[in-house]
Every structure is written in structure tokens, then in C-alpha cells.
Specification:
Layout (H helix, E strand, L loop, with lengths): L1 E4 L9 H7 L5 E2 L2 E2 L2 E4 L5 H13 L3 E7 L6 E4 L1 E3 L26 E3 L4 H10 L4 E4 L6 H12 L7 E7 L3 H4 L10 H17 L3
Parallel strand pairs: 1-4, 1-5, 5-10, 6-9
Antiparallel strand pairs: 2-3, 6-10, 7-8
Bound molecules: pyroglutamic acid.
Pyroglutamic acid (PCA) binds next to strand 5 and helix 4.
Amino acid sequence: LVTGFDPFENEPINPSWEAVRTLDGQGIAGADIVARQLPTIFGESNKVLGKLLQTLQPDVVIAVGQAGGRAEMAIERVAINVDDARIPDNAGQQPIDVPVVADGPAAYFSTLPIKAMREALRGAGFPVEVSQTAGTYVCNHVFYGLMHALRRQRAVRAGFIHIPYSPAQASGHAGAASLPVETVTAALRLALKVALKTPL
Ligand code: PCA
């Protein structure tokens, strides 16, 4: 399962959805890829994701989101139990300093092979880093919700990747870095392959 988000904060598109949508129905390393969109909405996003996890029972989950201003793709290491929104979400909610899951642990680590993915992607020429924070907005909320939902399913590899603006988006943000959507899609295919092939 790969997910992307719908557009937020006045952007006409969200490159995370543009990059994953074309993977839907494709195969990779013997696995079928399902790509779905999540709403950029606290709460609702994790409801939609929870239903997808139940119905699909995926082997690997990579949630993808836009991180405008970042220069590289960022494989996130850790999800934290905090919602602290800089701007309202697509439903007008702006939670400040509240937990994603009441009484949940402070954080969860990604169960993706983050270093193997970084090496493979760099080796193939994609700009990528390991990131130590997914922020405190809807992306971290979904990353935390994902890891919490799968906390007892240790055989499922799951995590989050942030991506830069698309070139068209970056043209509206002076000086911002960008990465073509097709490049992101190719990198995500490789990331999925590594996640499927690297033993736990
Ligand atoms: N990026 C936002 C939420 C949706 C998205 O694509 C984030 O980084 O939290």
C-alpha cells in the first residue's frame, strides 16, 4: 500500500498523490501495488488509513507526503505522539499540543529498512536523506497512526517518506527546491522494492 495526500495550503496539487497514483495496479517484486489518497485532515486521514489496512492487509506500507521547501526526499525515522498544527487542515481543524493517540507511547520508529532504502536510492541517483522529524502536522499524525495501528503486526513493514515540491509548485515559492513527480515515482518504486526484499 502506498498513500498520498490531497492538496492543502492553497496548492493546486499535492505531489505525493501525483507521484503514487500512477503506481496503482502495478506489480513490483511479486507484490501488487495499491495506491490510495488520504485527506489532509486530522482524524479522518487515520480513519481512512485504518480501513485500508483492514481490507488490504498489506505486507508493506509507505505513506508519502509533501514537504514544501525540502530539497531531497526524506525517509522519516520517527513518528511522535503530537499534533501541533501551524495551519488549519482541510476541515478547518488546528489542534495545538494534543496527542495523536491519548495514552499512546511518545514515539514509534519506522519499520522500513531506512538505511538500505537510502543507499539503494542514492546509488540509483535519487536525492534522498534520512530525516529525524516528520513535523507535527497531518503527515506525522498519519505516520504515528500507521505505526500505532500496526504495533502488534511486526511482520508488516511501514513508514513515511516526505517529498519536495513539484517544479510547477516551486515556481510559486521563490528559491524553493523541487523534484519532478516522475522522478519521485521512480524512486518510490525502488523504495518499495527494497522494503519488500530486505528481510526483517
Ligand atoms: N504534507 C503535510 C500534510 C499533507 C502533506 O502532503 C505534512 O507534511 O504534514
